[in-house]
Design brief:
The chain is mostly helical. It is built from 4 helices and 2 strands. The protein folds into 2 domains: about 50 residues; about 30 residues. The chain is elongated. The two termini are about 20 Å apart. This is Tc1-like transposase DDE domain-containing protein. It comes from Piscirickettsia salmonis.
């Protein structure tokens, strides 16, 4: 992901959903540490915290990525479909709480 894509997501998707006083927790990807990301979150009255380096166990999304990638790989191998179709089918089969 590039800084401009991350910034657009923060500005258009995340900030409108935040309430002042909330805390946003991010991993240490370089695009998360841009000045614009920090300013946007702080301007919304929120706090920005970063996970400790090399701590995927503290990042809940990491517990979803591995099973998701495995299911998509299996679907691609079995059905000879494109990535978008495989991902869509796998996401529909996953729990509503994960989606």
């Amino acid at each position: 992901m590039k800084v401009n894509v991350c910034q657009a997501y923060i500005d258009q998707c995340l900030i409108p959903c935040l309430s002042p006083g909330e805390t946003v927790i991010m991993d240490n990807a370089s695009f998360h540490k841009s000045k614009g990301v920090k300013e946007a979150i702080e301007d919304a009255g929120c706090h920005l915290l970063f996970l400790p380096p090399y701590s995927p166990d503290l990042n809940p999304i990491e517990h979803v990525w591995s099973p998701l990638k495995n299911r998509v790989r299996m679907k691609l191998d079995q059905d000879e479909i494109n990535l978008e179709t495989a991902l869509s089918q796998v996401m529909k089969s996953m729990s509503e709480t994960i989606r």
